[in-house]
Amino acid sequence: MQNNIFATMRSLKIMEGCKGTQVYTLNPSGTGGGGGGGVGSVGEKFLQHLQDHLRVNSIRSKSTRSFQTNNVQVDNNNTVLAEAMATYGLPQSDLLEPLIEPCLKSVDFVDTLASVYRRIESCPQFEKSGVYLEQCAIFRGLPDPKLFRRSLRSARQHAVDVHSKVVLSSWLRFERREDELIGTSSMDCCGRNIECPKNSLVSGYNPESVYDLCTCSQSRREDTDAEILMGDDECSTSEEDFDMSFCIGDDEVRCIRYNIASLSRPFKQMLYGSFSESRREKINFSQNGISVKGMRAAEIFSREKSVDSFEPDVVLELLSLANRFCCEEMKTSCDAYLATLVCDMERAMLLIEYGLDETAHLLVAACLQVFMRELPNSVHNPNVTRFFCSAEARERLALAGHASFLLYYFLSQIAMDDDMKSNMTVMLLERLGECASESWQKQLAFHQLGCVMLERQEFKDAQKWFEEAVEAGHVYSLVGVARAKYKRGHKYEAYKMMNSLVSDYSPTGWMYQERSLYCNGKEKMMDLDTATELDPTLSYPFKYRAVLMMEESNIEAAIQEINRIIGFRVSPDCLELRAWFSISMGDYEHALIDVRAILTFEPNYMMFHGKLHGDHLVELLRHHVQQWSQADCWMQLYDRWSCVDDIGSLAVVHHMLANDPGKSLVRFRQSLLLLRLNCQKAAMRSLRLARNHSTSEQERLVYEGWLLYDTGHREEALAKAEESISIQRSFEAFFLKAYALADSNLDTESSSFVIQLLEEALRCPSDGLRKGQALNNLGSVYVDCDKLDLAADCYMNALNIKHTRAHQGLARVYHLKNQRKAAYDEMTKYIDKARSNASAYEKRSEYCDRDMAKSDLCMASQLDPLRTYPYRYRAAVLMDDHKEAEAISELSKAISFKPDLQLLHLRAAFHDSMGDYISTRRDCEAALCLDPSHTDTIELYHRAREPSDEQRQKERS
């Protein structure tokens, strides 16, 4: 049975690249023309330009994919890329659209965070899990996945019932994607109660124990050789104790009337009530659907109160009998016993039908747990999904106590990630809406249904669901209503709706971005510029302006425009757009770099409107650039790493892995680059692949340790590092241990131990890239210990092996030695060397006067508006100059698109200094929602609460 199940499964991420981030609508004409503003003529020149460059070499594709698109002949290798571009059409500004985010989005995010924090603090303990789930939904739309996972852990920590524990534990496991780790089973325990599959089946509220080490391995149910035989049990009671019999066919089962009557009220009424059976010694039980063996087991249970000695088929009979005669104790025992038998997909598929038919809560929970811990694969098994998708399936689950918003929230998110347009996604979201009871739940379910219907081009239904979400209180869904109206031909209505939104609420970037879709010319450009000013993280305005420049034949300016956002927020769609521009200029080397980087983020990404696989485009482009050996790749990697060119480094690593896909060391380097680019999802995938391709046990343990550390399991990561060192001393094991230990407030003794570990790491063989990092980290610890000369030596040694970031550490040493000019010069060197140098400008500002510092911080903000230090510095300067309103405004500008803990804390402190205790309290609550353990904010919050309470009382009086 299991083989049949797995035969139906397919990979979850096959077409992931075709969805959300694909921004270019296919040009129906199959040419570059057809848009407004002279696109046709520009497109023709562009295609001719392409053909001049590309009709050169014979291109042979290693791809075995079949691309059945009009006018593209894959066998004609001389012109395949030019014809692909001609067929798929050029990006056109008129066809670009921003993505409507399928998540909760607030018009005042700070208020939303503060409200959630207050409810978490004030709600009864048994209700905390539900509020944490709401916090999960809010954090889902943020770029930092750690916030979401932390809330998910808190929801699991405060879960009370088995159903919630099973779903949340499975969801936590899914977030780690352990299904991608070779050699692991879905039912393996991570070692902590919080995700233990057996602990999840235990009801009750015990938040203090969820992070304890799991003892499930000690309590495994052992197959006992000393099973109690039926005959032995009957002998345990003397013959004279039996005072009645149940007759089944020609067989007779002797029983004790009192014991049977004690099983339930129906049995008691039958045996001691007014029924005729109460006066009979022999009762015909043939028509009650139980076998002789089953009835004997029931008799034994009436005395022993245990089903552990029975075969599973007998327990199933007892479960049915218990349901028919309301034997709650016997049903509970059968339910618990059968739940322990569910250990794999085959048994889960076999037993869930019994569980649903008999409404066995624990058995169904155990089966659902297997299904959910097998995700994402199980979502493609029709035998599994039939238990979830239909309205009838939800009703069956509800009868067994397992239909909940939580369950369908989990399942629908996986379905949306897999295929947003699928019927399964629609059905799961419909079930989600049926389970929604609270306002935020309805907002989320209806908004996501609207997003899915929009993707399916069912615009009338999309409008209906978005309007339902708006009615439930989700203002952001007005964007969906406007988009659906626009798609249905009501552009002016869409414009009026967004215009009213801009007028009625505090303006945000996404409001102006959406309104720009429904206007033209200068008005459109003004809205896009305002959107960028209010929220520079929105990619659509940059993409639109860049494509417009390309249509005006100003391709260099188009590349500069798209570089503005790639410089601080890398995404596949922006890199794809830049690759288009590079190809148009005949710059195939840079195009290839971008395509390789895209495939690092999303290995199955589809280029050219989702029609051409990225791997195939790599094959087409690479024949137009210089070929590198593996040794060349290492030299290129050193050069790009040293100039902090992370995109270029990713492309080199992708090239290296194409030649040697099993190289775990290179996979690990890839994960480090991805983490530097804040692409944690892709980084974790690379780490999992590094772990899977490990050639030794100690190497595998190190990568498992990094996976644990990066997902918030610091102690487990340390244990993996120590285990690896016990097998063999290695650079990476010592480095992992030192890194994990340094992630805390180090005292003198701890710092000395970290120094020792880093020195041990440096004694082990490794390459210069990692040794440079270790030297840099060692220098930082020396600085913290006030050992400045030793720190300087470390930084100089790191610079000698081209670890450019060591300039920052060396500048810090000079600054602490009161050599500010030397520190400034050191950071200038870093700015000159580094491709990504926003942090260098920011750091250099610390070593110069106020005017020069302002200039450097202005440049830092232009290069990377997500860096918060420049806003905090400028706000502090304004406060020093007694310009309180301007200081608050400076912080608010950044908080509106990046609700950062430090920004919120500083604004709260400013409000406090101005006597505005209500605003202080609100900002503190929002900050504590992001990090409930932030000590400085907790202290400020407690100080602000008493004046805030007094102020409210005065206002009431």
TrEMBL record:
<dbReference type="InterPro" id="IPR011333">
    <property type="entry name" value="SKP1/BTB/POZ_sf"/>
</dbReference>
<keyword id="KW-0802">TPR repeat</keyword>
<dbReference type="InterPro" id="IPR044631">
    <property type="entry name" value="ETO1-like"/>
</dbReference>
<dbReference type="InterPro" id="IPR019734">
    <property type="entry name" value="TPR_rpt"/>
</dbReference>
<comment type="pathway">
    <text>Protein modification; protein ubiquitination.</text>
</comment>
<feature type="repeat" description="TPR">
    <location>
        <begin position="772"/>
        <end position="805"/>
    </location>
</feature>
<dbReference type="InterPro" id="IPR011990">
    <property type="entry name" value="TPR-like_helical_dom_sf"/>
</dbReference>
<protein>
    <recommendedName>
        <fullName>Ethylene-overproduction protein 1</fullName>
    </recommendedName>
</protein>
<dbReference type="Pfam" id="PF13181">
    <property type="entry name" value="TPR_8"/>
</dbReference>
<dbReference type="GO" id="GO:0010105">
    <property type="term" value="P:negative regulation of ethylene-activated signaling pathway"/>
</dbReference>
